[in-house]
Amino acid sequence: MHVITSGEHYGALVDRQFDFVRYFDALVRDGMNGTRIFLAYREQPGAFNIADNSLAPPVERFLCPWRRSDQAGYFDGGNRFDLTRWDEVYFARLKKLMQAAMERDIVVEANLFSAFYGDKSWATHPFNGRNNINGVGDCPWNEALTRKHPKLVAFQEAYVRKLATILREFPNVYFEICNEPYTGGVDMEWHDHIADILAAALKPRAGQPAANGPRAAVLTSHLISWNVANGSKAVTNVHPAVSLLNFHYASPPDAVAANARHGRPIGDNETGFRGTNDAPYRMEAWEFLFAGGALFNHLDHSFIPGHEDGTHSISSTTPGGGGPALRRQFRVLRDFLAEFAPAEARPLEQVIIGGIPASYSARAYGQPGTRYGLYFRPVSTPTSFSVRWTGFLIPEMDGPHRLHTVSNDGIRVWIDDTVLIDNWTDHGTVEDTAPIRFTKGRRYALKVEYFYRGGDATARLLWTRPGKDREPVRAAALASGKGPGLQGEYFSGVQLGGSQHLFTRTDAAVDFSWSQAGLQQPQALHSPPLAPVVELPPGKWTAAWLNPFDGSILSEETFVHLGGRRAFSVSSVAPDAICLIRARP
Predict the structure, then answer these.
(1) N or C terminus: which one in the chain shows less Cβ crowding within 10 Å?
(2) 563 burial type by CB count under 10 A (0-12 exposed, 13-18 middle, 19+ buried)
(3) pLDDT tens profile 531-572
(4) Greatest CA span in the chain, whole angstroms?
């Protein structure tokens, strides 16, 4: 079974206001089957520019395993913690959360520790000496998760044993030792020590069978995860108790092939920082699981306290995406993979033998001889490009207007050789505005320049006319030498005329979000067509090309094949393409 999910920002347990039942119901509704929780970690409010972050609750809503003492002085309000006394309110909530998840067949990753990223993240933790009354944790942030302070380690060991004792009763949980231990301040000797403590606490009791997990030298009742790296890393030594290797931002999915020899499932359990559009995350999921990954967990910022149904509207400044539309796309992937028998399916890259332009990557997955899945995506995301649009703006109204741009990355706008907007920087999706007074019917020379270097690819020109709402500047108000619209000159790289010219065309408006559904980036438009050639055994086959947004069939053909090469014509790439090839009786 694959775990495929798009979950909230890990605070469903520690934010006592978060309605996890409503959240789990939303996951089930959208076809997701996993979530990730941090057990004793609190980010500072405002961290990473995430609005209403469940992992950064206000102090009065923060819940953790230890009870408050009668001594004031916690980081931002309330009494300090007593690390010798457990908070039964916390453990009651934890059990209710796990029971609700189990009843809905949701797999829970329970994260015991997280790396500290500096003084700010260390300042909130009960292990910090300023926040407890137990005389431990009086150390810098980069020594808190090491073995330099034995008294602190003893409390950490007790915490691990307590959580293991509680959570081992639930079959739908696995344990991650530490979130992002590779970012600094986490000693791997300490990490291995915690793995030993956890494995001992999870050993099957008399009469209790061990879980049917991957091959590991130490049998425990539950899987234990090591969060290895961002992106990819070839692991040389795996602690014998570790039975799952997790990576963050694992696109491209090189981590899977690099670590397949260890015989353990491999996950991509955190995504983000690639803008708010859906396409990068959808493509990351398809590629990772087609490469042989076992788990994919997107960090979905549409789940916040008060919007546990996942309907929060995500700000353009948020470092990631999410929402119902993206979860529907992940469900297409889940349903697609359900076509295959898990014990028999595997990556089959050798099946695709030609017809793939350099601007695309190709993946194959399936059961040899019976069914194959093909996935193609542009590798032009997030390669850089630039555009210059020129023509005339012909206002339909007199009076004061406002011009707006929404861009990621650089953009600038001239009217009659005067620069009105100039944000020629590498930035996330932002809006810039400039006032201007127009005369109805006059032809104003208009030039818009744009470059893209990564993240969301967005370039939009809008205006607010007198008495009107903000809206895109449409073709009726634009003119070039070839009629309505603007002439667009497209270049590879960010240097406009100093880069390789791709093509010139007339665009009806500057209103592009290339990462959104149905829009290809300029490199893909300029590349040769996608015409895959596949090696198939003889037999009768059906090939169906599917819409990645809703799973509907775009085209389908049944054919008799004598064996060997079979070429396909792709009817639609928007911007990625999916094909399911099945043997028929």
Answers:
(1) C
(2) exposed
(3) 999 999 999 999 999 999 899 999 999 999 999 999 998 866
(4) 87
Above 50 in pLDDT, residue 517?
no
Dist. CA 237–CA 242, nearest whole Å: 10
Give the three-class secondary structure for 207: coil
Q: Flag whether pLDDT at 360 surpasses 70.
A: yes
- Arithmetic mean of pLDDT, 300-313: 95
d(CA 136, CA 151): 6
Tell how strand 244-248 and strand 224-230 pair up: parallel
Q: What's the CA angle centered on 355, arms 353 and 358, to 5 degrees? A: 105
Mean pLDDT over all residues of the chain?
91
Q: Supply the CATH classification number for the domain 385-513.
A: 3.90.182.10
Direct distance between the N- and C-terminal alpha carbons of the chain, in angstroms, rounded to an integer: 27
Domain map (residue ranges) of the chain: 3-338, 346-378+522-585, 385-513
Distance between CA atoms of 386 and 388, rounded to whole angstroms? 7
Rg (the chain; Cα; Å): 27
pLDDT (mean) for 261-277: 91
Dihedral-angle region of residue 248 (phi above 0 means left; psi in -120 to 50 means alpha; beta otherwise): beta
The DSSP element (H or E) to which 327 belongs, if any, is helix 324-337
CATH topology of domain 3-338: TIM Barrel (3.20.20)
Token reading at 56: 């950064």
pLDDT in tens, 399-430: 999 999 999 889 999 999 999 999 999 887 88
- The whole-angstrom separation of Cα 55 and Cα 41 is 7
